[in-house]
Amino acid sequence: MSEMIVSELNSFNNYRYESNTKRIVNLKGASNADMDEFLAIAHILDSNYIKYKFTTNIDIRILGKI
Fold it and tell me: Which tens digit of pLDDT belongs to each residue from 13-37?
């Protein structure tokens, strides 16, 4: 993933991109997840044709480019 996309992902308050696991981690837990940030992250990934899936705790796992 490009540094620009990683920088965008790390700009959110309640989510953090972890490059070693290729996950975007929800820092607040599933019951307190910020859905606006979650949807904004999904939009960034979709706009850049990045394949992903949702995991437990409303985390996002990066699978690769489409």
Answer: 999 999 999 999 999 988 898 999 9
CB distance 26 to 55 below 8 Å:
no
Is residue 60 within 8 Å of 41, Cβ to Cβ? Answer: yes
| pLDDT confidence bin for 1, thresholds 50/70/90 | confident
Q: By residue range, what is the domain housing residue 30?
A: 3-65
Handedness of CA 35, 24, 58, 39 (dihedral sign): positive
Task: Judge contact between 60 and 42, C-beta under 8 A.
Answer: yes
Question: For the chain, what is the domain count?
Answer: 1
Beta strands in 1-66 (DSSP E): 15-18, 23-26, 50-55, 59-65
